[in-house]
Amino acid sequence: MLLFMLQQAWEADYGVKPPIESIASTVNATTEDMPATTAPAQAQIDAPIAAAPAQANVINVTTDVLALEINTEGGTIQNLDLLNYPVEKENTIVDKLRATFGLAIPERNTAPVRLFNAQADKLFVAQSGFIAANGSVEAANHHSLFHATKENYTLDAGQDSLTVPLTWTDNNGLQVTKVFTFKRGSYEIDLAQTVKNASQKAWVGRQYSQLLKTPSKEKNGMLTGMRAYDGAVIYTQANKYQKVNFDDMHDENLDVASVGGWTAMIQHYFASAWVPPADQENHFYSKELKLGQYVIGTYSPSVTVEANGQAQFAAQLFAGPKIQPMMEKTAAGLELTVDYSALTFIGKPIYWLLNQIHGLVDNWGVAIIGVTFVIKLLFFPLSNASFKSMAKMRKIQPRIKELQDRFKDDRPRFNNEMMAMYRKEKVNPLGGCLPILIQIPVFMALYWVLSETVEFRQAPFMLWIQDLSIQDPFFVLPIIMGISMKIQQGLNPAPIDPVQAKVMKMFPIVFTVFFLFFPAGLVLYWVINNSLSILQQTYISKQIDNAK
Question: CATH topology for 19-32+57-215+228-339?
Fold first, then answer.
């Protein structure tokens, strides 16, 4: 079984790959990637669709935050770049330090992150169109060829919005106008579609919007053993936020109806979501395609456009970083794509507090220090009692050692005498454990906040720490953390058992190695937390030592 799995992994990494092609040759003009509606007013789509022309034009759109292409075949959005988010950040301070010590300076990919991609092996696009009811003529879908008046659109200085219109007309008098609207500083793309029926017969159909993606084989987003979720999610009125991974789509097609809601494909730090009107009932669907691609989307209720009449349809596409305040304004629950796992109930207040402090100091590293002070203050009564207990334990340690020597051949007697001394001195031997246990979920929640929150991506702190979301490039913070842990350990009572004492002495070394690969922001939290604990514990120990 191991050999078979190794062979499969080798094929995935080093086997023959299909040639990289454009989207035009990857998604064929078939019904396979179309939503299959089953409502009474809508028949299953099985009629052939006329093939699109061999060559479609590409419209280039540039705003202050986005650069993307709109393919005139279907008005599909592809090759969308996030201009303010480079793949890798230049770090001149680290590079200068590397040069000073004769270390190699790595080449960095400073190109913007590409969210949508037209390459076959990385295919990820946003599609939209119409599906006609049985008996109605076919309207424009994402294989239909649209007409555009321009090939380049740019949001100029002083311009707040930009519109890109596309039109499609058939021989039966049916016309579809598709208008994309882009706004300054926004990752929302508004889609407005108008169906004009110049024929003598009513047209009945639905609007659909969908995301088509080839699952990524890149091993990115690894967070010290925890991989960020890469897959689809939906939000419905009944079940709220739900993950629909690619294995789920392989096993069963999604078929859910809800008022409002949205569908999305998410990855580490970034999300893409189609948001239909919140006041209408929308139908959610998914499909696995033959080429290993997956589709998730929604379609609207059936709409009738009478002869010589017209109807308006709307949807909104979000494609950008998972900035929670921005996403909350786009759609209800969209901020949940920032996944803090089962500790969301702790992670969200921590993020809120970080955001509030950052608004005052404009530095995420200082915000982490501020949150550490607040958390320390909240746990102060608990930690105070714990440190007092440990200080008392440390003070009676010589007497316990004397008991151990006196009753070394009578273990039960030693245990009884030791417990009697604990009761007499009002010492709880487990008193130091509770604060540590309570801090574990806070620590893990903060880990997810720092790892999942896009604001920390490439966020500088000071000096050589120019990205709080990755490990310290020179491992200075983890070493300081290990030293602080060793100092704090010296303030605690040593275990009576010599084997346990030796094991405990190894902890600072083990944790230092472990923290070498943690995000610098998380190590910063632990360094500040340890430093505050040392100050608090030193003060309490002096008080106990001076007491009778």
Answer: Beta-galactosidase; Chain A, domain 5 (2.70.98)
117: how many CB neighbours lie within 10 A of its CB? Answer: 19
Contact status, residue 204 vs residue 41, Cβ threshold 8 Å: yes
Q: How crowded is the C-beta side of 487, counted as CA atoms within 13 Å?
A: 17
Name residues whose C-beta falls within 8 Å of residue 470's C-beta, 6 or more positions apart in sequence: 519, 520
Q: From CA 308, how far away is CA 12, in angstroms rounded?
A: 55
Q: Is the model's pLDDT at 145 over the cut of 70?
A: yes
Share of the chain above pLDDT 70, in %: 87
Q: How far is CA 354 from the centre of its chain?
A: 17
Encoded tokens for 390: 């440990």
Q: What is the pTM of this model?
A: 0.79
DSSP 8-state symbol, 104:
-
Q: Please give the distance of CA 182 from its chain centroid, rounded to a whole number.
A: 24
Q: What pLDDT digit, counting tens, does each position of 421-475 carry?
A: 878 877 776 666 666 677 788 878 888 888 888 998 888 888 888 888 888 888 8
Tell me: pLDDT of 481 over 70. Answer: yes
What is the Cα–Cα distance from 217 to 272, expressed in whole angstroms? 18
Q: What is the CA radius of gyration of the chain?
A: 30
Torsion of CA 221, 226, 229, 235, to 10 degrees: -140
